[in-house]
Amino acid sequence: MGQAKSRGSARDKVRRRIRSRVQGTAERPRLSIFKSLNHVYAQVIDDRKGVTLVAASSLEPALKSQLGKGTGNAEAAKLVGATIAERAKQAGIEKVVFDRSGYVYHGKVKALAESAREKGLDF
Fold it and tell me: Is 112 in contact with 77 (CB distance < 8 Å)?
């Protein structure tokens, strides 16, 4: 295959490799994240059925009003992590498999994961 041409395609290679090993089931769904320059998104997915069970993002009006201007930073990621954990618990989900989507476990990704763990999500 050769070397990746850009940062995005390098992340795609890592993402595909991770997804070949990480599968979400009904008992232990997958917590997948996506981050853009302006926003942070998280969803809990059952891959066997192909459905999203719960989702949260910094785009939501309730979260956006708490954040003010910065919706794409680590503070926003913490809030999204806490929100996704609360919604997952309400849906009866205690354990998940973490899918970092090819991103380095640092900054926003780490903030989201640690916040979700603090709120009681097990992964």
Answer: yes
Domain residue ranges in the chain: 7-118
Tokens 């849906």 sit on residue: 91
Nearest CA-CA partner of 24 in 43, 6, 9: 43
Does domain 7-118 fall under CATH 1.10.1760.20? My reply is: no
Question: pLDDT for 55-76, tens place per residue?
Answer: 999 999 999 899 888 888 999 9
Question: Would you give the distance in Å from CA 2 to the centre of its chain?
Answer: 29
Q: How many CA atoms lie within 13 A of 122 on its CB side?
A: 6
Could you read off the pLDDT of 4-48 as tens digits, one per residue? 567 668 889 999 999 899 999 889 999 999 999 999 999 999 999
